[in-house]
Amino acid sequence: MILVSSCLAGLEVRYNGTHCLNNKINKLIEEKKAIPVCPELLGGFSTPREPAEIIGGNGEDVLDGKAKVIEKSGRDVTELYIKGAYTTLQQAKDVKATVVVLKEYSPSCGSSMIYNGEFIGEKMDGNGVTTALLKRNGINVISEEQLADHSISL
What we know:
alpha/beta, 4-stranded parallel β-sheet, two-stranded antiparallel sheet, 6 helices
């Protein structure tokens, strides 16, 4: 089974109430080979919500207590991101996920790039909080951008 970011499945769960429908992911869901998941909703957020970025590092640093996830207004939402990451990890274990496809650049889901924490649209290398936790637990995480080049064993 594959877990995929809900926004990539066409669900309007992104911070601004939109989605990022990916047709390949939508097909996997229709074929019952993938299940949508949104770590931010699982952490307790609603849609829409204020944009947030990791300040002071990346997802690994958040898990290690060295960085925080902060909303644009300055509110610390680190604990909600960590809660969503652990709930997603449990779901991945429950369905015996072979791969997880998450939305690139997200502070939860980014698997190679995230925003740099300055709320100016600039990106940097790094994992989001959920991706970092999943990888620490041996789960293969890729982004929708890597999906085209990735052969998923179903």
